[in-house]
Design brief:
Shape: elongated
Strand content: 15-25%
CATH superfamily of the largest domain: Bira Bifunctional Protein, Domain 2
Bound molecules: 3,4-dihydroxyphenylalanine
CATH architecture of the largest domain: 2-Layer Sandwich
Structural class: alpha+beta
Radius of gyration: 34 Å
Helix content: 25-40%
CATH class of the largest domain: Alpha Beta
Largest sheet: 8 strands, mixed
CATH topology of the largest domain: BirA Bifunctional Protein, domain 2
Order of helices and strands: HHHHHEEHEHEEHEEEEHEH
C-alpha cells in the first residue's frame, strides 16, 4: 500500500470510528470501540507494525500519517468520555445512589449574629481585600484625641454638634471613631490604610432614629496622590458590596473640621424607598457616609507631613447601614437585646471571606 492509499484507508477508518464513538452510550461501549481501532491488533494500531515494510526514506512520512490518525481518533474518544462520563454522574446524582466523597461539605453555622456584627464583618471583608488593616481604639477618650487633634479646638463651635458624655475623671466617651485616625497615624505613620469599627456615644434623647450608643466604621487612607475620585470609588464599592441591591446616593458638601473639602453622602432610605418615613425623619434620605479629604492640621497632629502626603477619611454610620440592609425601622431595636432581632443564617449567608485557613 503506498502512502496515498494508506491515507485513504486511515480517512475511512476515522470516519467509521467517529460514527461508532458517537453511537456509544456507555463507557464500556466506548472502551470496546477504542480498542477495535487503537489497540495493537486494532485496525489503526496494527498498521503501525507495517512502517518497517516501507522503504527507509518513506518511513518518516508514514509514521507521521499514522500518528496523526491515531491522535485524531484518541481525541474523539476523550471527547465522548467526557460526554458519557458527565451524563453518568448526573444520572447517578439524580438517582441519589452515588456518594461522592470529593465534594466539599456543607458548612455548619452555629447560632445567629447581631445585625450590626453581620454588616461589620461584611465591611471588614471588603476593606481587607483593598489592603486596609482593621484597627481599634479606646471608648473612653481624652479631649485631645476626640476633639483637639481633629482640628476642633476648645472654643470651636463644632463642639456643639456633638453632645458629649463627660466623665468625672476629665475624660469622655468618644463621640466618634475619628480619634483613632490620630492614634493610627501616630502608630504607623504614612502611607496608611485602615478602618476602625467601633462604638460611639452621644448624649441624645432616644427615639426611632436616635440612640446614645451606636456604631461607626472610621476609614483612613493616606498616601501620595490620593484624590476625591479614589474616595468616591471606594465608597461606591463598599455600598455595592454590602447592600447587593439597587440604591440611590447623593453627595453634597458637608462641614467637618477634620476634612477639607468635606462631604455628606446620603442614601435614599431603603425602608420607604425615599418616600419619607420615621426612620429617615420623613426626608427620604439618610446621612450614611460622611467623608472628605483629610485636613492638613489633622495630618500634622498625627505626625504626617501634609506637604508630602494627603488622603481621605470617612465615618460610616454602621448602625444605619445595618438598619438599611436588614430593613430595621426603629434604631431602638438594635440595642434592645431582643434575640428575635438576630440575623438567622437563613437570611444572611455571611460575608465573602477569603479563607485564611
Ligand atoms: N466623625 C464624624 C461624626 O461622627 C463623621 C465623619 C465625617 C468622619 C467626616 C470622617 C469624616 O472621617 O471624614 O459625625
Amino acid at each position: 500500500m503506498d502512502v496515498g492509499e494508506l491515507q485513504q484507508t486511515l480517512d475511512k477508518l476515522h470516519q467509521e470510528a467517529k460514527g461508532e464513538l458517537a453511537a456509544a452510550k456507555t463507557l464500556d461501549e466506548l472502551r470496546s470501540v477504542r480498542s477495535k481501532y487503537l489497540s495493537k491488533t486494532g485496525s489503526v494500531g496494527s498498521l503501525m507494525g507495517t512502517i518497517k515494510d516501507y522503504p527507509p526514506q518513506q518511513r518518516g512520512e508514514v509514521g507521521k500519517t499514522l500518528n496523526s490518525a491515531n491522535k485524531a481518533i484518541q481525541d474523539l474518544v476523550t471527547e465522548h468520555t467526557d460526554r458519557i462520563g458527565s451524563a453518568e454522574v448526573a444520572a447517578d446524582a439524580a438517582a441519589s445512589t452515588a456518594f461522592d466523597p470529593t465534594l466539599p461539605g456543607e458548612r455548619t453555622r452555629l447560632g445567629s449574629v447581631h445585625p450590626v456584627t453581620a454588616v461589620q464583618w461584611e465591611v471588614e471583608a471588603v476593606f481587607e481585600r483593598l489592603g486596609f488593616t482593621i484597627e481599634a481604639g479606646p471608648e473612653m477618650e481624652s479631649d485631645y484625641y476626640n476633639f483637639e487633634a481633629l482640628n476642633i479646638p476648645q472654643m470651636h463651635p463644632a463642639r456643639d454638634l456633638q453632645d458629649t458624655f463627660w466623665l468625672k475623671n476629665g475624660m469622655l466617651l468618644r463621640t466618634q471613631t475619628s480619634p483613632v485616625q490620630i492614634r493610627a497615624m501616630e502608630k504607623f505613620g504614612a502611607p496608611l490604610r485602615c478602618i476602625v469599627p467601633g462604638r460611639c456615644f452621644r448624649y441624645e434623647t432616644i427615639d426611632a432614629s436616635h440612640e446614645n450608643t451606636f456604631h461607626q466604621v472610621e476609614g483612613l487612607m493616606i498616601d501620595r496622590n490620593v484624590s476625591i475620585a479614589n474616595l468616591i470609588a471606594v465608597m461606591k464599592l463598599l455600598l455595592n458590596e454590602v447592600l447587593q441591591r439597587e440604591f440611590e446616593i447623593r453627595l453634597r458638601p458637608g462641614y467637618f473640621p477634620f476634612v477639607e473639602p468635606g462631604f455628606e453622602l446620603d442614601i435614599a432610605c431603603l425602608i420607604c424607598n425615599g418616600k419619607g418615613c420615621a426612620t429617615c425623619k420623613r426626608t427620604g434620605w439618610l446621612e450614611l457616609l460622611p467623608c472628605g479629604m483629610v485636613h492638613p492640621n489633622v495630618l500634622k497632629a498625627g505626625g504626617v507631613d501634609p506637604n508630602e502626603y494627603g488622603g481621605f477619611a470617612f465615618g460610616l454610620g454602621l448602625t444605619r447601614l445595618a438598619m438599611m440592609k436588614f430593613g430595621i425601622r426603629d434604631i431602638r431595636v438594635v440595642n434592645s437585646g431582643d434575640l428575635r432581632n438576630l440575623v438567622h443564617p437563613a437570611r444572611w449567608a455571611g460575608p465573602v471571606i477569603v479563607d485564611k485557613g
